[in-house]
Amino acid sequence: MRGESDEVRSFLPLPLATFHILLALAEEDRHGYGIILDVAARTDGALRLSAGTLYRSIQRMLEDGLIVEVRDRPAPELDDERRRYYRIMPKGSAVARAEARRLAELVKLARAAGLAPGKA
Q1: Is the peptide bond before 13 cis (omega within 30 degrees of 0)?
Q2: Cα angle vertex 102, ends 99, 104, to 5°?
Q3: What are the DSSP E strand ranges found in 8-90?
Q4: pLDDT band at 78 (very low <50, low <70, confident <90, very high)
Q5: In degrees, to the nearest 5, what angle opens at C-alpha 47 toward C-alphas 41 and 76?
Q6: Could you give the CA distance from residue 82 to residue 70 in angstroms, rounded to a whole number?
Q7: Is 117 helix (H, G, I), strand (E, B) or coil?
Q8: Does residue 76 have a cis peptide bond before it, meaning omega lies within 30 degrees of 0?
Q9: pLDDT at position 4, please?
């Protein structure tokens, strides 16, 4: 897609789990279980990430520089110290924006072909 760097384009299309994890982290830092809950709520239960899928995705995203593990805790006195919190990085935001544009273009094409509701 035009406007994105080759590096950003190299991540596209994003795996569904990766896109949803980036969406969850776009709003605030979250721990793993918090990400699972956010994704389930955001999709009305249509997507339920297993712990295995979540942590494999997180590991890959950490290696790729899309997210980072943070030491900050929102309420340390109320939190379990074993929890790991994650934050989206600028590269992760750029990749998520590029994926959103890619998906919007697909919906536009589907509308033009009469396969999706709305104006073409």
Answers
A1: yes
A2: 110
A3: 30-31, 67-70, 85-88
A4: low
A5: 50
A6: 13
A7: coil
A8: no
A9: 82
Summarised one tens digit per residue, pLDDT across range 26-36 is 999 999 999 99
What is the model's pLDDT at position 106?
96
The pTM is what? 0.90
Indicate the burial class of 98 (C-beta count within 10 angstroms; 0-12, 13-18, 19 or more): buried
The pLDDT-based confidence of 82 (bands split at 50, 70, 90) is confident
In the block, which residue shows the tokens 């989206």? 88
Token pair in block for residue 4? 């994105």
Task: With CA atoms as reference, report the closest residue to 8 among 91, 100, 102, 105.
Answer: 91
Q: Is the pLDDT of residue 119 over 80?
A: no
HSE-CB for 100 with a 13 A CA cutoff: 10
Say how far residue 56 (Cα) sits from the centre of its chain: 13
1, 67, 69, 73 from 18: Cα distances, Å: 19, 11, 16, 23
Find where tokens 């992760």 sit. 92
